[in-house]
Amino acid sequence: MARARQAALGYALLAPSLFGVVVFLLLPMLVVAWLSLQRWDLLGPIDYVGLSNWRSVLTDSSFGTSLVVTVLFIAMVVPVQTALGMFAASLLARGLPGTGVFRTLYVLPWICSPLAIAVLWRWILAPTDGAVGTVLGQRIEWLTDPMLALPVVSAVTVWTNVGYVTLFFLAGILAIPADVQNAARTDGATAWQRFRYITLPMLRPTLFFVLVTGIVSAAQVFDTVYALTGGGPQERTDVIAHRIYAEAFGAAAVGRAAVMAMVLFVLLVGVTIAQHLYFRRRISYDLT
Amino acid sequence: MTSPSRTMSNAAVYLGLAVGAVITLVPFGLGLLTSFTSARQFNTESPLSLPSPPTLANYTGLADAGFGRALVVTALMTAVILLGQLVFSVLAAYAFARLEFPGRDALFWVYVATLMVPATVTVVPLYLMMAETGLRNTFWALVLPFMFGSPYAIFLLREYFRTIPNDLIRAARVDGASTLDVIVHVVLPASRPILVTLGLITVVTQWNNFMWPLVITSGSQWRVVTVATAGLQSRYDGQWTLVMAATTVAIVPLIVAFVALGRHIVSSIVVTGLK
Predict the structure, then answer these.
(1) Which of A1, A18, A25 to mutate to probe the B interface, most B CBs <10 Å?
(2) A161 touches A77 (CB < 8 A)
(3) What is the DSSP letter of B220?
């Protein structure tokens, strides 16, 4: 095929997706930067206001609260789902007859709409006629008690994600050559020693992947919070994504929402770049 | 082999796995049962008593609340996005994997870089763009941002297409096949597993999508299932039998699809890394 024809064909095949990438991914990044310098209430005219949105957001305690809530949420969700996922994977990795079905079962919550899952749990945790209250015979304000709300939202998120995390650890454990485990067993290593000195070090890439993707997705949680608590009580569950939504579509302060979106973007890119730097330097286990 | 201690530890493994299964399944089971309980029984007896007799009243209630339309809109939206993503991602991935043209590698890196753009960040500017072009609260607003292919799918497909033997494509070329013929008759059949996987991931992601439909549509015309479920929950707070019917409708189609294709998806989630 002539080079010119091949080039023309290449651009033709790329055209639709390039349109999508430019218009719906790159252009919005420029628009959000521009919007952060404007005042807009969703309906009226858009006015240039310079850096005043940035000043008001960065000095505003509600955004600080959201950052803290998001960090607390990540700190409660990511370690717990990682530990439980690793534990479940270690059970599944035994390969006992009939255990394959558990793998599928555990992923079910992750497949389902997070919004529907949150509405389901809202009933289960409802103080007067919910399932938990009925079983305990006691009224507990799981979602409206300021001390309980964030841990409960985190627990529902962990319940949703554990099966997904398990899949990655299972793949990681199964990829460890049996020879290595057998050699350690022959040398008299206990199950704990084999886990601590063989499985865990060899799972490091998996562990890191699960941690980083867990942080990036937990930092953007929205549906679960929207349906369980709506950011309350007293902003105790007002994570960043929910704050952005509430600023733009609740308070009609679109410029402020744009500032928050840019801050979130910079933080997430930071996490992703850290991940790439790590993977470039990571210790690889070449066993050939 | 079956020493007493081995039997004991196997029993412990089964016990641990069973506890996990109960914790996973019980919330679903309770929601499902409640959706078949009459509101009257739910309010007068214990909320956990078995439906007697089981009733479909909550589901007919959903139909009255416009859920039928929401299901159709959601299915249409998912289908259009699925078709667009698969077709346009395949075309782009083929160009990146198999053709040579100036700027190819630079463009590919632009695509890869956009993987870092989170949906949460683009919602606000996309809303402005849709409002300015008069597309707010239209079907196009639901599908346009997602239907031109996904950089992630293109990235995975490109890797996959590069492993297809050159001879296979050359042989087709010798027989006079056009590029489109090659894609349809050689590349696609050789890529079925990855296409099924990407298709399922797209269906799951779009069926469950909430934030974008929530902000860009209003009223009942283009309301999708997730938005309808959230709306129902806030409008009929406390009418849990009706609300549980809504969550069941939102959840069950994907569970059915997942169980039907379960093994396939479970292994592929790991291959593709994320939703």
Answers:
(1) A25
(2) yes
(3) S
Q: Tell the residue number behind the tokens 């890439």, with chain if given.
A: A205
**Could you tell me which of B140, B157, B80 has the C-alpha nearest to residue A23?**
B140
What tokens does B67 get? 């859920």
**Domain spans, chain B:** 81-239+261-272
Q: Which CATH class is domain A52-281?
A: mainly alpha
Find out whether A5 and B98 touch, Cβ atoms under 8 Å: no
**Would you say residue B270 has pLDDT above 80?**
no
Handedness of CA A260, A261, A267, A270 (dihedral sign): negative
| Cβ atoms < 10 Å from Cβ of B48 | 15
The pTM of this model reads 0.92
CATH numeric code, B81-239+261-272:
1.10.3720.10
Answer for the pair A131, A211: CB distance below 8 angstroms, yes or no. no
The 10 Å CB-count burial string (b at 16+, else e) for A37-54 is bbbbeeeeeeeebeeebb
Q: ipTM score here?
A: 0.91
Find tokens 């492993």 and name the residue.
Answer: B163
Contacts of B145 in chain A (CB under 8 A): 20, 24
Closest CA to B234 of B72, B119, B65, B74: B65
- For the stretch A183-242, pLDDT in tens is 888 888 888 888 888 888 889 888 988 998 899 999 999 999 999 999 989 999 999 999
The conformation of residue B187, written as its DSSP 8-state character, comes to: I
- C-alpha distance from residue B233 to each of A121, A148, A230, B24, B236 (Å): 12, 22, 12, 23, 5
> What tokens were used for B36?
């078949």
Contact at CB, B210 and A167, closer than 8 angstroms: no
Averaged pLDDT for residues B208-212: 97
At residue B175, the 3 state secondary structure works out as coil
- Would you say how long chain B is, in residues? 275
What residues of chain B lie within 8 A of the CB of A265, using their CB? 117-118, 121
CA A88 to chain centre: 20
B94 closest CB neighbour out of A13, A116, A121: A13
For chain A, what are the domain ranges? 52-281
State the SS3 of B66-127: CHHHHHHHHHHHHHHHHHHHHHHHHHHHHHHHHCCCCCHHHHHHHHHHHHHCCHHHHHHHHH
